[in-house]
């Protein structure tokens, strides 16, 4: 991708993102994105890392998620407002920026509502490749909201999952998920309870939205050898798993200082042992050690994953038409004469009014 005017910033709209993903193919996009995420996890020590900056209210949360690898800087603005569905709005919306560290100039502005759904699912599947049993074929998907189909597609594309057991408090959500995933070669069962959904499951994904300490999974529902992909617990006071499950599991996280505040492990002592996912991916530490081991990916989402997603999109735009150029940067011919730039614009406007 190249622009003749360096002051114009590529912007990927929702429509652009959908077209880019569909042109590439959803499964292929997830696989490519997973590769970028894994590449950046493998250079984890190169990144600035900080827990996301969150503004909480009774209605939800608004967050900023920044990081840099020293060459590029990225951040995402994202919200989480579960009650939005009552007014026909999305629970989660997001946009992001990728910038050049050397100059500070933005290189890309992108929608990230769709992109976040893709990167969350891709990250889940990447983690499961290291933590789930290699012969896993069946996934229980509890919480059939906006993230559910993306999780299903990612696990099918990256792990070969071929059987889904769906459950949601709202049967219409399960029906929508089942309908959206039909024709993809998945054996899909709509279940009447969480207990029914987890029966025979190799992997359990929880992706509920309510901002509360909930018990989606109780201890008796989790048998030996299961991998749990806990996606929904992602802010203080919001969890999905009974504490006893955590005590039986080997827990893997993205960035402990953030996960201890926001993840399932907020229920545990601050020194409870957890393993950073990047250490498993690099081969420094073991992930799954036995068939009977219960592994838990306490996923809250971290800024490097958004950085990877923005980096992926910027690379995909090369030779693409799926963006527009924004006049985003005030950059006068003489860098110190910003006021003069304003005066010259006034001359142009005066001329237009008298013409």
TrEMBL record:
The keyword Coiled coil does not apply. InterPro entries: NAD(P)-bd_dom_sf, ODC_Mu_crystall, ODC_N. Its EC number is 4.3.1.12. The keyword NAD applies. Keywords: Lyase, NAD. PANTHER family: KETIMINE REDUCTASE MU-CRYSTALLIN. Belongs to the ornithine cyclodeaminase/mu-crystallin family. This is Ornithine cyclodeaminase.
